[in-house]
Design a protein that fits this description.
One of its GO terms (cellular component) is cytoplasm. The protein is of the alpha/beta class. Helices cover 37% and strands 25% of the residues. The chain has a 7-stranded mixed sheet with strand order 3-2-1-4-5-9-6, with helices on both faces. The chain has a two-stranded antiparallel sheet with strand order 7-8. α1 runs parallel beside α4.
């Protein structure tokens, strides 16, 4: 396990997200705007496209960790996925997601759930686990981020069904770092290509999307 840690940030606190989603609920109710897509729609679309083309059945159990406004799940529902669960530790995020999804996709389930502190056995096993930004937020926690990262990894591994897939997108960790973090509990399946940028003679990726499979 890599011992490198990120600088703590308010983005790693529940209070920050509670306030952010409270504002987004008001904005949605007033203007019908569901809010921003974390890392942008292009990044989300690449992952959604990969999921749709990876061969898993449309009735596979799918969970979105830190589902926010539910964007990923509503897009998967548009593609025919039917067994969808979004969890978030912010009640406000779940309230927003339910409001956004209720008319078109009432079958999407949302639940307040803390991936670090709650018992994942109550959720069951999943054929696909998706994370876009939640591991990042946990890694920015001002309160023992390393311990929380390790707990998160254990929890995800516990939820993965046999041959289940874990798709993670991060803007704070590189592909190599994600591989080091998760390789004890699961195997690398592939990397979802993301646009590269060049700065100061160095080439890199602003966002990393990596797919793991259960051991």
């Amino acid at each position: 396990m890599d011992d490198t840690e990120l600088e703590p940030s308010e983005l790693g606190t529940q209070d920050y997200w509670q306030k952010a989603y409270t504002k987004e609920i008001i904005n949605f109710e007033d203007h019908g705007d569901p809010g921003d897509v974390w890392f942008g729609e292009d990044s989300a679309y690449r992952v959604i496209k990969w999921i749709c083309q990876c061969g898993i059945p449309l009735d596979s159990s799918v969970i979105d960790l830190g589902s926010g406004n539910g964007y990923t799940l509503t897009e998967l529902a548009r593609e025919g996925f039917s067994n969808l669960l979004g969890v978030d530790y912010c009640t406000e995020a779940i309230t927003l997601a339910e409001k956004v999804a209720q008319d078109q996709f009432p079958f999407i389930r949302f639940q307040v759930f803390d991936i670090i502190n709650d018992d994942v056995k109550t959720l069951g096993k999943f054929g696909l686990i998706h994370d876009k930004g939640t591991y990042d937020a946990i890694s920015l926690s001002p309160d023992d981020a390393k311990l929380k990262r390790h707990k998160y990894i254990d929890q995800v591994a516990e939820m993965l069904a046999e041959n289940g897939l874990f798709v993670i997108t991060s803007c704070n960790w590189t592909e190599d770092e994600l591989l080091r973090h998760f390789s004890e509990k699961m195997k690398l399946k592939c990397v979802i290509p993301t646009p590269q940028f060049s700065f100061g003679g160095k080439v890199g990726n602003m966002v990393s999307s990596v797919v793991f499979v259960s051991k």
